[in-house]
Amino acid sequence: MLDLTRLYPTIKENVLNALQEDVGTGDITADLIAADTQAKAQVITREFAVICGIAWVDEVFHQVDPSVELTWHVKDGDQVVPGGLLFAMSGSARSLLTAERTALNFLQTLSGTATTSHHYAQRVAATGVRLLDTRKTLPGLRVAQKYAVSCGGCHNHRIGLYDAFLIKENHIMACGGISPAIKTAQSLHPGKPVEVEVESMEQLQEALDANADIIMLDNFTPDQMREAVKLTAGRAKLEASGNITDETLLSFAETGVDFISIGALTKHCRAIDLSMRIIF
What we know:
The chain is an alpha/beta fold. It has two domains: 4-121 and 269-279, Alpha-Beta Complex (Aldehyde Oxidoreductase, domain 3), CATH 3.90.1170.20; 155-261, TIM Barrel (Alpha-Beta Barrel). 41% of the residues lie in helices and 19% in strands. It contains ten helices and twelve strands. The protein has a six-stranded parallel sheet. Strands 3-5-1-12 form a four-stranded antiparallel sheet, with helices on one face. A two-stranded antiparallel ribbon has the order 2-4. Helix 9 (249-253) links the parallel strand 10 (237-241) and strand 11 (259-261).
């Protein structure tokens, strides 16, 4: 899991950008309320969810008005039922209303990602496979969504283009083949994980001969994956990828591959239905 304590600069930037987008030069509707009006509010969920995004919510209220007090009744990774109280707050009524939408946007989106990840993780809980996210994330929220994936019980693939190699079809063609691509990667950045995508058993053998660390089996059938597991015999980690759905997930997980990468963890998530109510 990503270390939340090291994410603060990213969280701060996420929130700063989101508030600039929403509040801009000022909340003219909140200005209808007298500046000295105080209020309390509660946020509940209207549906089952795995909660994620508390640090983002805290930062929203901190940037809008540090004097607002928040009391959380859940923590990241908690499962909540419809009607469950997530947090309460008190402070300037103007501040509560100005921060509301941005705070809930983060909480509902990241909880949606965590909830989707939880669903997939439960589907393969009886197997030894690790479900991985991808780079198919919302622009600007890469780290936030990957943190949410881990809160839901799945795992992170590489964070970006800088921390691990993933040599795909177009890279292979441009480099002149699987073996040259792997050898160049190993010489350019020793110690960085080298993963290569293959589309056939022949390419798998070439990747094994070139000592790839991880081999992505692209659009292999479950039978082909079982054959690949047997051929690999532990010489590299194997990752299944490509057109794996909720319905077919378990059949791939039972083939013996080490990982399954699923873009749907981040790109198909649906925001959780949350509600905030002001109490004067």
